[in-house]
Design goal:
- The structure is a homodimer of 555-residue chains.
- With 555 residues, chain A is α/β, with parallel strands linked by helices.
- In chain A, strands 1, 2, 3, 4, 5, 6, 14, 15, 16, 17, 18 and 19 form a 12-stranded mixed sheet that branches. In chain A, strands 7-12-13 form a 3-stranded antiparallel sheet. A 3-stranded mixed sheet of chain A has the order 21-24-23.
- In chain A, strand 5 and strand 6 form a beta hairpin.
- In chain A, helix 6 crosses helix 7 (199-206) and helix 13 (329-335) packs across helix 14.
- The first copy, chain A, is globular and about 70 Å long.
- The two termini of chain A are 14 Å apart.
- The interface between A and B is large, with 79 and 79 residues.
């Protein structure tokens, strides 16, 4: 069978100018990056009175088997476009680190991909590089402030803002910098995160424009003084330079799917320590261009969708009008206790047991006042009996569902038509969206609400350091921020091994990290990896370029 | 008086498609980056039988007063274009680090600038970010190799390849990485250089194409094994991924001058630990497009021009046909002992004394078989008497010279006409270029030759570690590489305070660093700064973006 790269290369791309013209993007708004990529200046696109509707694609708890959420997002967008609705897809940009490490990026799969796949996965239009630069300029200016006399009295032991690289580089997780004597700075502990974990990335994706971006950057807390007062970017006066470094990156990137549907691929924050969705600016622009906007939230619905509702929707006017929950026969079996190497075999009991996971996610969506649609992403090992059984199960649960055959049948084929029909029907139904909790609730209660209402936990337990942080958050006036849960994506609990729909568990909050620029409090449960490492056999070692410039090893 | 940014903004830019069409660049070779920047694929530009001639712009020993070498390069290009000759300018890209630190970039000044100035100085087309990524991917893969079992037996104490950031970040000069326990890597000393100091940057600028690039990357020595054998990129198998990360960056960037002359701005290695000239690919492409190509070498002629002749010219077929040496009345006075705060006043004795510096540079150029032309870059404080005196001095020295009034009179005005005339005349004269030394000479003798013939030193002295390195270089078979001198740009000697044309001095080589991918041996004299720091009041603190996207503070 053809792999994703082969399919992507075999696709006939339209000039991005044609895609833009068909999407109603005026010429003066378009900045070309080669023939098949462009940046779009939202200020040059007329705002519409009636904005497009937003379809949020999320998923059951992910498994190592892979659910294909991006593939469904792209395939659904293509299928909606086939109905004649003006459709724009909004997706996150892939990070270079994982591309060199494990796998290609997050550009969908099979015949449901955004292209040009190689360029999107390598540098793209340079947005992540701009974010890396803005992040590291701030870091350099913090250390330079200390070196030049430390007028603000920053405690080098209490700097919380870290440097970043868009790279999987384990050796940079914990470092000591400023060595070499008085002329080289002040020695202190530091560390590098991957760029997608930067607070600058989160801000970039939540900002509604350059002014909002600058204001949010100014609010970043970089650390604390010797007398424990927070030090912000505004105290250092660096928000202007950071905004300048980000101003071109802030324009959404236009590409196309294999079927020629316009896609805005822009921004890409982590879905654990950040909110895990493409930029608000891209989604807003898409709503000015299209009748229907299909966008995707990171990880499973307990993380990505909850954050979309409680963080992203509040930061900008982008509440979802419909929610698609991606499920697969294989993932359900895994949640039902079937071992990974037996997923290809029919296992009705395992399949049924696994529906507990999906059921809890579906129930959660209704808690936000929204009606979910289940997208059963078809894998080649699925039998018709299994698919029929799952459709029937959904029907008994009172939930709309459709099989999406978009990996092999995407690219403008009929594989997503049924799903598109269900989604369009859902968009017609009244919905009464509301976030899960009011912002006035205490941080502790907000966390308890998420943990009990969404995860199904009995309660939450705070570590001693986390309790101390709760006090600091109150003292610093940060109580009204929403919470951003950093939890494993593989389980509703904070224990990766508890698949399905665990009961009778407690979630342990180890630490709380205020992100005052992004505007949320990260609640850390378990070990959260903000700088991945490379595997034993990194994908990079198989990559190359032919003399004619054709890349290899990139999938 | 208008500043550089005001002048740059007031300029009317032509669409880059028009500039490209006028330069004879076929449509299929052009990849647009917005309206005023493009990458040009050299493989899509027909090669010409008769290549354009190369004018190398270099300078007397620089002073803090500023000589305006880039300004003269741009102004000369504009003036040559005015004569009707098909002209292309080839320049280095500016680094972001200094832009945030001290000053704008290296895009010329006044009415002799390449534009859009802001975009060229900020991210541009992302080349330096690609180089940073390729460099740091290698570094991560080295540490990952050790972490995953260290099959090659790399000695973590003897890794010579460092990470880079395009940032002035003093605190990263000396760091300890890999802290945090066995799961986080192996603790070792490391450090970050600025991206322009990366060997990957030097290779990028010397490579003749993607295959040559890949071969050179494979030859980088990253460190040594426990039994002191060199470890190369080829041993790790990373050259393919690095080339892939660089493949799009490798296409030269097309912009325009204020007068509308096409300029290829591409690559930018340091002129001390590297060779300090724009990419060979850009210069070669320019020679396929134009009758005359004006390019610039970094620092003074003792460093930049010597390296152009002995390193760049050998790496590719780009020997200069004429050499312009930029001099200023102010710099001559400073070399003649006039204090910096008195440079605005006439001082005939000081001026005459300072000519000793220029004379030695002019003599040096003839040692390569080339006839120099002196460009007297006019500053507003220069008097007609001073300029006439210097023209007369040049005449007595038997050297062609012209006053270049290109800062205020550039942009297509007549300020560079006389210089252009002299340069065209020089191009008609026969020249007999040859490098200074044969490659078969020992490294020690090559260094001695440069030091005696070019700097005018009595001899060279090697430190004990440098002598040990000479042995290693012989043992590893690296004896036939040219040498790349890392010396202060402010003096012919290795003592910054000895201005003019010092006599009776010895140059001290502290260390030798083999750059086996770039293909030269760096001879380090004095302290060479490969990671600059930010000043007390960094330019970044004055930068910002207006709500309409207009940048401020960038000059």
């Amino acid at each position: 069978m053809a792999n994703d790269l082969d399919i992507s290369r075999a696709a006939t791309m339209q000039p991005i100018t044609s895609i833009a013209a068909a999407a109603g993007i005026p010429d003066e708004a378009l900045e070309l990056y080669g023939r098949y990529k462009a940046k779009v200046d939202p200020d040059q696109v007329p705002a519409r009175e009636e904005k497009g509707k937003v379809v949020l694609v999320t998923a059951m708890s992910p498994t190592p088997a892979g659910e294909g959420k991006s593939t469904v997002t792209v395939g659904l967008g293509d299928a909606l476009a086939r109905t004649g609705r003006r459709t724009v897809i909004a997706l996150r940009e892939p990070s270079l680190g994982p591309v060199l490490g494990m796998k290609g990026g997050a550009t969908g799969g099979g015949y449901s991909q955004v292209i040009p796949m190689e360029e999107i996965n390598l540098h793209f239009t340079g947005d992540f590089h701009a974010i890396t630069s803005a992040n590291n300029a701030l870091a350099a200016l913090v250390d330079n402030h200390i070196f030049q006399g430390n007028e603000l009295g920053i405690d080098p032991r209490r700097i919380t803002f870290r440097r970043v690289l868009d790279m999987n580089d384990r050796a940079l997780r914990n470092v000591v910098i400023g060595l070499g004597g008085p002329g080289q700075g002040t020695p202190r502990e530091d560390g590098f995160d991957i760029t997608v974990a930067s607070e600058v990335m989160a801000i970039f994706c939540l900002a509604t424009g350059i002014e909002d971006l600058t204001s949010r950057l100014a609010l970043i807390t970089v650390g604390y003084t010797y007398d424990r007062r927070p030090v912000t970017v505004a105290d250092l006066g660096v928000q202007g330079a950071m905004a300048l470094l980000l101003k071109d990156a802030l324009k959404p990137n236009l590409v196309q799917t294999i079927a020629g549907t316009p896609a805005l691929v822009h921004g890409g924050p982590f879905a654990n320590i950040a909110h895990g969705c493409n930029s608000v600016i891209a989604t807003s622009l898409a709503r000015d261009l299209a009748d229907v906007v299909v966008t995707e939230a990171g990880f499973g619905a307990d993380l990505g969708a909850e954050k979309y509702m409680d963080i992203t929707s509040r930061a900008a006017d982008v509440a979802p009008d419909a929610v698609v929950v991606v499920a697969t026969i294989r993932a359900l079996k895994m949640h039902g206790g079937v071992p990974r190497d037996r997923l290809d075999e029919p296992n009705p009991a395992g399949l049924e047991a696994g529906t507990a996971n999906l059921r809890r996610h579906l129930r959660n969506i209704t808690k936000f006042g929204l009606n979910p649609v289940v997208a059963i992403n078809r894998f080649t090992s699925d039998t018709p009996q299994e698919l029929d059984w799952l459709l029937e199960w959904c029907s008994q649960e009172g939930v709309e569902a459709a099989v999406a055959d978009v990996w092999a049948g995407g690219g403008g084929g009929p594989g997503g038509d049924e799903l598109a029909g269900k989604v369009l029907a859902a968009l017609e139904k009244p919905s009464a969206f509301s976030p899960l909790y009011p912002l006035q609730m205490s941080v502790e209660e907000k966390i308890r609400t998420v943990v009990q209402e969404i995860y199904g936990a009995d309660d939450v337990e705070f570590s001693v350091p986390a309790l101390r942080r709760l006090e600091e958050i109150k003292a610093n006036g940060w109580e009204n921020f929403p919470v951003c849960m950093a939890k494993t994506q593989y389980s509703f609990s904070d224990d990766v091994s508890r698949l399905g729909a665990p009961e009778g568990f407690t979630v342990h909050v180890r630490d709380l990290v205020p992100k005052t620029g992004a505007g949320f409090i990260v609640a850390v449960t378990g070990a959260v990896m903000t700088m991945p490492g490379l595997p034993k056999s990194p994908a990079a070692l198989r990559m190359g370029v032919a003399p004619d410039g054709t890349p290899s090893g990139l999938f």
